[in-house]
Structure formats: C-alpha cells, structure tokens
Design brief:
By secondary structure, the chain is an all-alpha fold. Helix content is 75%, strand content 0%.
Length: 132
C-alpha cells in the first residue's frame, strides 16, 4: 500500500501544469488516506490555483493567436494568389483550440470550487494495513 502513495504529490504537481483533472478524485482520496482530510483539502486548493494559472496562460495564448488571425485575414484580403490561406486555416484552428482549452480549465476550476464543499463531509481516515 505504501508504494501507491509514493510520488503521489509529485504526479499531481506535474499534472497541474498542463493537464485536465480527470484523476483528481483519485489524488484527493490518496491524500485523504495518507494524511487525512486536511491534505485532501490542500490538494483541491492546489488544483484550483493551478487551474487559475492554466486559464490565464491559455487566455494569453488565445489573444496572441487572435492577433495572428486578424493579421493573416487582412494579408489574405490583399493576396490575389491566396498563398497565405493555409496559414490562416492553421492559426485559426490554433486560436479556437486554445480558446476551448481556456474554457475547459475555467469550468474545471468552477466545478472544484463547488465540489470543495464535499470535502467537509469526509470521514476520519480509516486505519490501513501497513506493508513492512
């Protein structure tokens, strides 16, 4: 059982940098089993902060891509050979993808805010057998 807990926080920390939070419930339970409800709540607090940073990062990237789309759109209007159309399509896709990512992270942050109340209902950590 001890091996399950080893490196759990490091994995969550790495996940908070760029990933969605599909395994967050597992991380919360592992923190609860390892150290109790306080650590489980700290995992949620850390995840919310990381999501806030990701939202901000994605919003900045979306703005940059939008400026590129606007530039390429105006350049394409004066390009009779349509040489920049492929680039316009690619950058438009990147812009939309980053916008969607920002929204997804923001929704996850809001969900964590609402779900944090569930942690008040966590029972005391049950005793677990320890491997020796």
């Amino acid at each position: 059982m001890r091996r399950v807990f080893a490196g759990g926080s490091a994995h969550l920390q790495q996940q908070f940098q760029s990933d969605t939070f599909e395994s967050l419930p597992r991380g919360i339970v592992l923190a609860w089993l390892r150290s109790g409800p306080d650590e489980a709540r700290s995992v949620v607090t850390e995840a919310r902060a990381a999501l806030g940073r990701l939202v901000h990062k994605k919003q900045l990237a979306a703005e940059a891509h939008k400026h590129q789309v606007d530039f390429l759109r105006s350049a394409a209007a004066s390009d009779s050979a349509n040489t920049g159309q492929g680039m316009l399509v690619a950058v438009t896709f990147q812009w939309l993808k980053v916008e969607f990512d920002a929204e997804l992270f923001q929704l996850q942050e809001q969900a964590l805010e609402r779900l944090a109340g569930l942690l008040k209902e966590l029972p005391a950590t049950p005793p677990l057998p320890v491997e020796r």
